[in-house]
Write a structure and sequence with these properties.
34% of the residues lie in helices and 36% in strands. By secondary structure, it is α+β, with helices and mostly antiparallel strands. The strands form two sheets. Strands 1, 7, 8, 9 and 10 form a five-stranded antiparallel beta sheet that branches. A five-stranded antiparallel beta sheet has the order 2-3-6-4-5, with helices on both faces. A hairpin with a 7-residue loop joins β4 and β5. The longest helix is centred in the middle third of the chain and has 22 residues. It is elongated and about 80 Å long.
Length: 225
Amino acid sequence: MTAPGTRVLRLSAGPDVVGEYEEKRSRFLAVLRRCDDEEAARALVADLRRAHPAARHHCNAFLVDVPGSSRIERSNDDGEPSGTAGTPMLEVLRGSGLTGVSAVVVRWFGGTKLGTGGLVRAYGAAVSRAVDEAWRAGRVMEVTRTPAWTAQVDHSVAGGLEGAVRAAGAQVLGVEYGRRVALTVAGELAVLGPILAARTSGGTEWESAGVATTENAARRRDVES
């Protein structure tokens, strides 16, 4: 699982993303889906087998980050010569920067063998076109995980504290008014700590409130620069 403060790229929630490639009348249909675990990643294969039962191959690759563990990376050639389908698909996913993503390429044989080099090129190209379509359609999101904090402060200082937090570039997640004001924010403690100390004369400290996750549309030129 990615640590707080890091940024990763994911597909936005929504329909599958599709890309196609054709060579010597063999058709390669690549489908990308956002997935949060290995079970969901493998479900895409089953879905496409049901949708396209007449296709000869349903090759797949996926990348999934698991909380408290390392990333899971898997690929399968589904009857194609070893290393000619799943491996190039996985390499494209790695190069894309995406995580939490499953890719399946459905192949209809066109009657002419492509050879190992042709297969590697075709499967990789199909996934690349799907990735390009995800960018074109604005489906690639930059996900940021930031430590969240909460503090109980007097009404007399709440407004100024909220303004100072925003001015420092931190995110205000919520403000609850009661006998005191509960302010929940997302940002780095090294930045937020001195602000709270100054506003409360050191009488209040931030308490951990977990991790805040935000998603915003990514710009490809920023990622690749």
